[in-house]
Amino acid sequence: MLNKAIFNIIGDILKVNDLTPEAEVLKELGARLARIRKQQGFSQTELAEEAGLGVATLRRIEAGQDSQMASWLKLLKTLGMVSAIEALLPEEVRSPMAEARADAGRRKKANTAGGLVWGDERS
């Protein structure tokens, strides 16, 4: 119980990170979807109908109990938020660690391409 209470306190601050259990991520995404739906003035019935989903499906998604990508895509399209997928999975991810690894690989290739290996000396 104490761990759940601590998670709830931290979760209110961080919401979603790499350590967040999948079930909690789904609940948070469902809650966010419900907030956006309400902000845009949709009832559950209206959004479900416009997205071509059953109301029960939307209710499960908002409760964090359904993770069907096709359903999420339909809802995001109806809410005019398909571009949010770009933030979720960008075409190209640039991270300092990935760039450092790529640079190291290029340096290694450059050093071995000329036939030189560390410790060799030129005459």
In a few lines, what is going on in this structure?
This protein is an all-alpha fold.
Q: What can you tell me about this protein's structure?
A:
It contains seven helices and no strands. It has 123 residues and is mostly helical. The protein has one domain: 434 Repressor (Amino-terminal Domain). Helix 3 crosses helix 4. The protein is elongated, with a radius of gyration of 24 Å. The protein starts with a helix and ends in a 10-residue tail after the last helix. About 6% of the residues have low confidence.
Write the layout of secondary structure elements.
Layout: H1 2-14, H2 22-39, H3 44-51, H4 55-62, H5 69-78, H6 84-88, H7 96-113
Helix pairs in contact: 3-4, 3-5
Short descriptors:
123 residues, mainly alpha, 434 Repressor (Amino-terminal Domain), 7 helices
Mean pLDDT: 79
**How large a portion of the residues is in β-strands, by DSSP E?**
under 5%
Name of the CATH homologous superfamily = lambda repressor-like DNA-binding domains
Characterize the overall form: elongated
Q: Briefly note the structural class of the backbone.
A: mainly alpha
Low-confidence parts = 5-11
Number of domains: 1
Largest sheet: none
From the N-terminal CA to the C-terminal CA, the straight-line distance is: 72 Å
CATH class designation? Mainly Alpha
What is the overall number of helices? 7
Helix-strand pattern? HHHHHHH
Radius of gyration: 24 Å
Number of strands: 0
| CATH architecture classification | Orthogonal Bundle
Percent of residues in helices comes to: 55-70%
CATH fold annotation: 434 Repressor (Amino-terminal Domain)
